[in-house]
């Protein structure tokens, strides 16, 4: 992941002995890490003639959005989970009819109707699933019904019986990925601010004044707009990449 690489590159930097150059380089790299953590938009320099760069994805906002979407998927999956009766009995049924409909794009969708028998009486169950593939009439399916109320039934095999797990599983995965992304974002922001403060202290020691908030906001905004070539900062280069950047102002 690019953001982790930027973090590791900064840790491995051999900083300049000159406090002014070291301070300017630390402040620039710190601002880049803060921009990465907040917005995930620090841009990598591309080859000449290919524009200013391209945006990454992530940041605090991306992580929060991912968390919300993950939770929504989990809730949808839980809501779609079939309510199996305690006295459920399994029986073999068949697809006896196919309903057709059209979606908003005018595409045809198919929904099967199942038939199953209980003590010689035939019951029918309409599927809530719709797909672009026409089900085969006569195909066998597994049906579970309540012994006390045979009309209370559900299909127990196929995608229809598992679709809620697909939503819940996708939500859990997205939730986990978003939590990791948020942790990385927070780590980048905290480390970036610490590095920026260290660079500010170096510049003060060199007799060069600097404003904490104004310089941090200015440099982070420039990194987000692609005005700072990230690959030329300590975040973008491993090892001896501690100087040569314009001083923040």
DSSP summary: helix tally: 5
Strand content: 15-25%
Structural class, from helix and strand content? alpha+beta
Largest sheet, in brief, is: 5 strands, antiparallel
E-strand count: 5
How many domains would you count in the coordinates? 2
How far do the termini sit from each other? 31 Å
What is the helical fraction, as a range of percent? Answer: 40-55%
Rounded Rg: 29 Å
Shape: rod-shaped
Mean pLDDT: 82
The neighbouring-strand order within the major sheet is 3-2-1-4-5
- Flag low-confidence runs: 43-56, 244-249
Query: What is the chain-wise order of helices and strands?
Result: HHHEEEEEHH
Tell me about this structure:
- The structure is a single chain.
- This protein has 2 domains: 2-69 and 168-232, no CATH class; 86-151.
- The chain is α+β, with helices and mostly antiparallel strands and 249 residues long.
- The model is unreliable at 43-56 and 244-249 (pLDDT under 50).
- The protein has 5 helices and 5 strands, in the order H-H-H-E-E-E-E-E-H-H.
- The longest helix has 43 residues, at 163-205.
């Amino acid at each position: 992941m690019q953001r982790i690489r930027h973090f590791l590159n900064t840790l491995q930097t051999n900083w300049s002995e000159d406090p002014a150059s070291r301070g300017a380089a630390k402040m620039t790299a710190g601002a880049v890490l803060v921009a990465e953590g907040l917005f995930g938009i620090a841009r990598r320099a591309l080859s000449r003639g290919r524009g200013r760069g391209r945006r990454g994805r992530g940041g605090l906002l991306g992580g929060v959005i991912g968390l919300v979407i993950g939770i929504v998927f989990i809730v949808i999956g839980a809501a779609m989970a079939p309510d199996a009766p305690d006295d459920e009995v399994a029986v073999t049924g068949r697809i006896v009819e196919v309903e057709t409909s059209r979606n908003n794009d005018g595409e045809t969708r198919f929904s099967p109707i199942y038939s199953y028998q209980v003590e010689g009486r035939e019951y029918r169950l309409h599927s809530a699933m719709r797909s672009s593939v026409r089900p085969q009439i006569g195909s066998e399916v597994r049906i579970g019904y309540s012994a006390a109320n045979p009309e209370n039934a559900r299909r127990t095999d196929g995608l229809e019986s598992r679709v809620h797990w697909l939503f819940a599983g996708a939500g859990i995965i997205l939730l986990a990925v978003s939590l990791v992304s948020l942790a990385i974002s927070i780590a980048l922001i905290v480390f970036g601010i610490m590095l920026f403060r260290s660079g500010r202290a170096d510049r003060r020691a060199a007799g060069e004044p600097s404003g904490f908030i104004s310089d941090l906001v200015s440099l982070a905004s420039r990194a987000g707009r692609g005005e700072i070539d990230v690959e030329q900062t300590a975040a973008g280069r491993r090892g001896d990449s501690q100087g040569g950047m314009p001083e923040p102002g």
